[in-house]
Amino acid sequence: MRANRVLGGALVDANLIKVADLEAANERLLELVREKPDGQVTLLGVLMYEMKVLNEDDLLHHLVDAEGVGLIDLRTYDVPEEFRKNIDFGACWATWTVPFDKEEDFHFVATAYYLSAAVRAYWEKQLGPNILWYATTLEVISEYLEKTEAALNRGGGPAATA
User: Fold this and answer.
1) Measured by CB atoms within 10 angstroms of the end CB, which terminus of the chain is less buried, N or C?
2) What is the DSSP letter of 76?
């Protein structure tokens, strides 16, 4: 929930949504959490898919132009097996973020929640300060986590390309 609160404030500060829209989205998010306490509910999803007050392309353009973040589509990236088999699904779902590679001392991390300072702080605590952040969509994060989790649950090991 903290990740969503911080994200909401950052979206308002970036002029991507209005305060009234954030307040309505927060109310809807609380309803969804009560209905599905173990579901992957997200403020970003409410704003984009239910309320349609935020365009994901606008958000991605803002991240690239104003924040200097790169973009990644994990559907086209061959994630090393060590990242697929050691994934913390709870943390990834809660933060809409996935560590997907490491080179020397740098971790590569894809997130739909880059504007949430709480999300960035959590992953910096887990991985250290040397993180190369990449923005991606909710859909890409969701597909990657669902496919990877399904492959691990089948007992066949991680999917070659999640």
Assistant:
1) N
2) G
CB 162 within 8 A of CB 147: yes
pTM confidence score: 0.89
**How far is the C-alpha of 133 from the C-alpha of 107, rounded, in Å?**
8
Strands 97-103, 106-111: pairing is antiparallel
Tell me the per-residue pLDDT of 7-57, one tens digit each, with 9 for 90 and over: 999 999 999 999 999 999 999 999 998 988 666 789 999 999 999 999 999
For the chain, give every domain's residue range.
2-54, 70-153
- Taking the chain, what is the end-to-end CA distance rounded to the nearest angstrom? 27
Distance CA 93, CA 88 (A): 9
Residues 6+ apart with CB under 8 A from 90: none
Which CATH architecture group holds 70-153?
A: 2-Layer Sandwich (3.30)
